[in-house]
Specification:
Layout: H1 16-26, E1 30-32, E2 39-41, H2 43-62, E3 73-75, H3 76-79, H4 83-87, E4 95-103, E5 109-121, H5 126-136, E6 145-154, E7 168-178, H6 181-202, E8 208-211, E9 223-230, E10 236-246, H7 248-252, E11 257-258, E12 264-265, E13 268-275, H8 277-286, E14 303-308, H9 312-329, E15 333-334, E16 337-338, E17 341-343, H10 350-360, E18 364-369, H11 370-375, E19 377-382, E20 386-391, H12 392-420, E21 422-424, H13 428-437, E22 441-445, H14 450-460, E23 463-467, E24 475-476, E25 483-484, E26 487-491
Parallel strand pairs: 14-17, 14-18, 21-22
Antiparallel strand pairs: 1-2, 3-5, 4-5, 6-7, 7-13, 8-9, 9-10, 10-13, 11-12, 15-16, 18-19, 19-20, 22-26, 23-26, 24-25
């Protein structure tokens, strides 16, 4: 049987890791930067990140979480105040010790102007934002206080992969302070629901919501909520987290407020964030051997018009038709935005333009030639769902519905795939047998013991992704035999 031609080589089955890199390159999402472990996020990749920002900023406005910006440098003494928190990423911190460069004896540039105190390049901003809270929280009337920032973060990674794990990455981090434990805990849980909504409604990725085990929770947090997704190699990817921090950070940051009865108290805080890792999740959940597949709601550009100009005599007519079609389509509302249209007038063949659009994941390609104009129909090539001919009027009237149907089909395909590779294990033997056969999500009763997780990771490189709050049947932990109502999802993970 003749092998089907694909736009991406190798295919997913041949080499999944190399396929992923080829999709990133083929769609022009990012490229390797000169500094090891860093990446250039290219315009087509950044517009997806902007779409995520746009959606989340809308949610933040409704939740009264304003945006701000805080410094990327912090004194070493600042983060030493929270030793438990810092321990989680101390080995990844980038440290600045000098202020300038000078020419050495051999004429080469060397560091000079040693700082009295080393500066840490932002790995996260809890302690800097603690200063902001300390300056603005004095009374219970100042609470709750919430703030968000979109910024970059540096964590010196040893093994990197574009979007999934890089030395520098983009994220948002939001921080909240509350008068009561209940308010802070409720807020942290509510935010993971917002992330689940983003994953489902915008990125078309089905996720599991749960609580991290003691071994996996955020350093210094009392509780960490997470959303976990399955990629096409059946491994798990953590897509976003929300942390209930209790009073740990407010005590470390010396934040206090006067309660209604004039007592001094530390506020209860929380933090939550997600990163450009979401683009990696999008790629690995939906893309195929022809390249990127973009859920229509996850992009600012939904349609590419490709003019087919076979003779100079037809150029003006076809160009005018395409320009007017672009204007008409851009007046169509889709979900929470307007339809975005690209008219590709580059001096390359229509075939090259088509494959470029397919590799880039553009939801709909419209091929427009002289014959299409005369016949009154357009060739509508859907990235997911085949090809059909529609009249111009029919296309304009139904485009929003077509895009919504594509969004639905992409989500349902990912959900079916995850469900097909999710299993339940009620014995230790069944648990390890599943992972000997395939990567999977395995749900099992578990007593939440970090020592057990270490043993599992050593034996088969599997980790506890989260505890499912909706699954609390009484059972015995399959590893220790202890009675438990805790059920956890285990998987190999990125």
């Amino acid at each position: 049987m003749k092998k089907q031609k694909t736009a991406i080589t190798p295919t997913r089955q041949e080499n999944y890791a190399d396929w992923y890199q080829a999709v990133v390159k083929g769609a022009k999402l990012a490229s390797q930067a000169e500094v090891r472990g860093c990446m250039n996020v290219l315009p087509w990749g950044y517009q997806i990140w902007e779409r995520i920002q746009e959606y989340m900023n809308g949610r933040f406005r409704l939740l009264e979480i304003p945006n701000a910006y805080f410094p990327m440098f912090m004194p070493l003494s600042k983060i030493q105040k929270e030793a438990e928190h810092v321990e989680g990423f101390a080995k990844e911190c980038a440290v600045v010790t000098h202020t300038k460069l000078e020419k050495g004896a051999d004429g080469t540039l060397v560091p000079a102007g040693e700082l009295e105190e080393a500066m840490i390049v932002r790995p996260t901003s809890e302690m800097i934002i603690a200063d902001y809270f300390k300056a603005h929280i004095h009374s219970y009337r100042d609470l709750p206080l919430k703030v968000n920032q979109w910024c970059n973060v540096v964590r010196w990674e040893m093994r990197t992969r574009m979007f999934l794990r890089t030395t520098e990455f983009l994220w948002h981090e939001a921080h909240t302070a509350h008068a009561t434990k209940k308010e802070a805990s409720t807020d942290a849980e509510a935010m993971i629901r917002e992330y689940e909504k983003l994953a489902r409604e915008i990125l078309a990725i089905p996720v599991l919501i749960g609580v991290k085990t003691e071994a996996e929770k955020f350093p210094g947090a009392e509780r960490t909520y997470t959303i976990e997704a399955m990629m096409q190699d059946q491994k798990a990817l953590q897509m976003g987290t929300s942390h209930f921090l209790g009073q740990n950070f407010s005590k470390a940051g010396e934040i206090r407020f006067n309660t209604k009865d004039e007592k001094q108290e530390h506020p209860y805080t929380g933090s939550f964030g997600l990163t450009t890792r979401l683009l990696g999740a999008l790629i690995m959940t939906h893309s195929d051997d022809d390249g990127l597949v973009l859920p229509p709601r996850a992009t600012q550009s939904h349609v590419k018009i490709i003019p087919f100009i076979k003779s100079e005599e037809d150029r003006a007519e076809i160009t005018d038709y395409c320009c007017q079609l672009k204007k008409d389509l851009e007046e169509i509302e889709f979900f929470d935005q307007w339809v975005g249209v690209i008219c590709d007038e580059k001096d390359i063949s229509p075939s090259e333009k088509k494959w470029d659009a397919i590799r880039s994941g553009i939801p709909i390609i419209l091929e427009v030639g002289k014959r299409d104009i005369e016949g009154g129909t357009l060739m509508v090539r859907k990235r997911v769902g085949g090809v059909e001919k529609l009249t111009r009027e029919k296309l304009i009237n139904s485009l929003s519905e077509i895009l919504e149907q594509m969004q639905h089909e992409i989500f349902e395909k990912a959900l079916h795939f995850r469900n097909a590779h999710t299993h339940e294990a009620t014995t230790k033997e069944a648990f390890f047998e599943i992972f000997e056969k395939e990567n999977a999500f395995v749900l099992a009763p578990y007593c939440d013991d970090p020592k057990i997780e270490d043993e599992i990771a050593e034996k088969c490189a599997v980790t506890a992704r989260c505890i499912l709050p909706t699954k609390n049947d009484s059972a015995s932990c399959i590893f220790s035999g202890k009675p438990t109502t805790t059920w956890a999802v285990f998987a190999k993970a990125y």
